[in-house]
Amino acid sequence: MITSLSIKNYALIEKLAIDFSKGFSIITGETGAGKSIILGALGLVLGKRADLTSLKNKEEKCVIEAHFEISKYKLNSFFESNDLDYEDETIIRREILPSGKSRAFVNDSPVNLQELQELSLLLIDIHSQHQTQELSDEKVQFEIIDGIADNQVGVLDYQTLLKSYKSDKSKLNLLLTKQAESIKEQEYNTFLLDELVVSNLKSGEQEVLEGDFEKLNNVEIIKESIDKSLAIANEEQIGVMHNLKEIKVSLQKIAIFSPEYHSLLERITSLTIEFDDISEELNRCSYKLVNDPEQLDLISQKLQVIYSLQKKHQVSSIDELLEIQNNLENSLLEIGNLETEILALTNLIQQKTDALDALSTSIHKNRVAAVPVLTQKLIAILETLGMPNARFKIDINAISTYFENGKDELQFLFSANKGTDFGLLKKVASGGEMSRIMLAVKAVLAQYSKLPTLIFDEIDSGVSGEIANKMGEIMKEMSQKMQIFAITHLPQIAAKGTAHFKVSKSTIGEETLSELKLLSSEERVVEIAQMLSGTVVSDSALNHAKALLS
């Protein structure tokens, strides 16, 4: 439960610190006094988004801090899973800086808003006026029934599995689409692959073929040039080799006279050896050189195949063609792999389908069993609230569709009077009836809920007199199991509280301030008397107030 709340620099509140007790607490105040501001501050602590309009003084930060006693509510696992320090008295602090940035802390550890919101669901339920209309929302109706049916764990397991199931279904659809596209391309890709395979391409082959082609295509010019070179080199009297040898002999005669001449001799000797090697190589080239038109034709055909393939695939090398060939082989293999993957995923989806069906069946059975319990309890409470002929018709039908909370369709119908047909709540129930029905729902859920604190924000809208008195008694009874706050304008309800807080607004100079004060017994009598008679308190109002409080 919440034990204290402190607010600094928020809206109309400059500074406020208030302690709360267990049981049934009342909050009253004139319209516009600042009750919504208190709830707004509490909302920030519970993870609602904030902006600079929240700051009273735009130059200073806003700090809202709430203390919660949680030792009885087994929340250790939440703290562990979110890597937070657990304390029996947990402190939640929210800060809004003048820059607009917002920070949140749980036991001085920084948290994000999502974590704070998840924690708040385990601490407080704030029921505002507009939420009464949510009774007509199918999602809310399911939450009510599941609360009675103790389906929370089952629904959570179902939702986790459903998310995984939908993800797998999405993957399967993508694979099937890919498979269909692959099958369409398969025939053409097979043709392209066969064309490349038949070509028997090898890395580096193109350069060799192009070299051989140039040789065979120019064999006469090459032979003429080689023969001429050999003749110049090896002519008996004036050939290059003969002259080199002559130079070598001459230098041998003078080499002993100077290192310089000796160096020249070494160089001409080296040159002679190199030239002799060149001459031998020319002889070998001349020997291998033959005019082979057939070979030339074969090489030309092979090159034409290579050039044609390169043009078709818009590449410039055999290596690129080989890469394309490899990719085509892999793409054709993928079709087979896709079939295996599709089969495995289909089997997994079937397993999850079976598990979802089992979970949804269990959820459905629990809901069906909860319906008579819920209707009986609601009817009993509503009878005390002046609705003796109230009837509910709740039909739960299992269908094949997977919804977010199971496979059920729900009809939540209501009739307030004898002889009238059942109809949708929002169409057949008045504002006062909706308020009473919502209180009845909350009262029933309180018997099953482990929630520490429930805040009613003017749930008494549209009721008065004895009905208001009964509503107060129901809330007081609820406070035996949980901490209850009621923001109310009705003295009958205000008188039922164990503690009474008043929100008031005052003007100091140019500033308007709101404050929250715990009333003493005497102040409480006066406050309830004012709620009965207005600002001017009569003796009869005072006596009536005392009677309500007795």
Q: TL;DR?
A:
This protein is an alpha/beta fold and 550 residues long. The chain contains 17 helices and 15 strands.
Task: Map the helices and strands.
Blueprint: E1 2-10, E2 13-19, E3 24-28, H1 35-45, E4 62-69, H2 76-81, E5 89-96, E6 102-106, E7 109-111, H3 113-120, E8 124-127, H4 138-149, H5 152-199, H6 205-217, H7 219-234, H8 240-254, H9 259-288, H10 293-313, H11 318-384, E9 391-403, E10 406-415, E11 423-424, H12 425-428, H13 431-446, E12 453-457, H14 465-478, E13 483-487, H15 491-494, E14 499-508, E15 511-518, H16 521-533, H17 539-549
Parallel strand pairs: 3-13, 3-14, 8-12, 12-13
Antiparallel strand pairs: 1-2, 1-4, 4-5, 5-6, 6-7, 9-10, 10-11, 14-15
Helix pairs in contact: 4-11, 5-11, 6-10, 7-9, 8-9, 11-13, 13-14, 16-17
What fraction of the residues are assigned to beta strands by DSSP?
Answer: 15-25%
Which topology of the domain at 1-123 and 451-519 does CATH recognise?
Rossmann fold
Largest sheet report: 6 strands, antiparallel
Percent helix? 55-70%
Shape category = elongated
Query: What is the radius of gyration computed over CA atoms, rounded to a whole number of angstroms?
Result: 47 Å
Provide a count of the helices. Answer: 17
Overall pLDDT: 86
